[in-house]
Amino acid sequence: MPASTPSPAVLAWRDHDPQARTLPGMSLGRVPLTTDPGDAERLWAMGTRRAELDTPVDLAAPGRAAARAAIDQLCLIRDLTARAVQVDWELRLPQDRGEHLWKVLSHLHPPRALAGLADGDTALHAWRTRHYLCKLIWRQGPGFLQIRDRRWGDLRRFTADDPRYPAAIARLDRGARAGDFAADIIEELDAEHLVLRADDLVWWLPYRVTRWLQEAMAV
Q1: Nearest to 173 by CA among 145, 208, 143, 149
Q2: Segments of the chain assigned E as strands
Q3: Is the pLDDT at 152 greater than 50, yes or no?
Q4: What is the Cα–Cα distance from 208 to 115, expressed in whole angstroms?
Q5: Which of 40, 65, 156, 210 suits a disulfide with 149, CB 3.0-4.6 Å?
């Protein structure tokens, strides 16, 4: 019989400091994932402040299954980043889009390794040194939603009052087929680099902040 594929999991700790993680009781061990929206909240409630993914995020692998697996991992990284949890992960990018994609993903906690770029060390250094919380966030108000984007060095703010957007974002949050949405919505989000395309899936990039870096009015 062929060996079964192990379920996705993370190694989790109660602290991000390397020395503190060696103390008794700081390791939470290997925590299996369910790849549903509750994983990040469950890890946070357990006391996780640093998590290590057990497999690289591979956006260069072909096929729908590979795209689905990568988006599931990115969902967890995004949702943990929103909670200021440090994430230890590796990223492989397609060579034809890598220079653009790392900047698109630069609001996420920086990976420890970056493959698929001609000068991956330079890109990784830039990602690490320029990263901070709340770099790409969204919030929903009465009758509108707003996105604030600082990935490109300046503040870009988008406000949408079209009632179709909240429903679309709710479905895009975990990744969905592009063909299931009105073309104008996906085209507009894509033009502003607010979604990631992988195979035939489209995934919503911004996170809803749960821990403010500074006073909310300043963000």
Answers
A1: 208
A2: 9-13, 27-32, 50-53, 57-58, 86-88, 90-92, 113-115, 136-141, 144-149, 156-160, 176-177, 195-198, 201-204
A3: yes
A4: 28
A5: 156
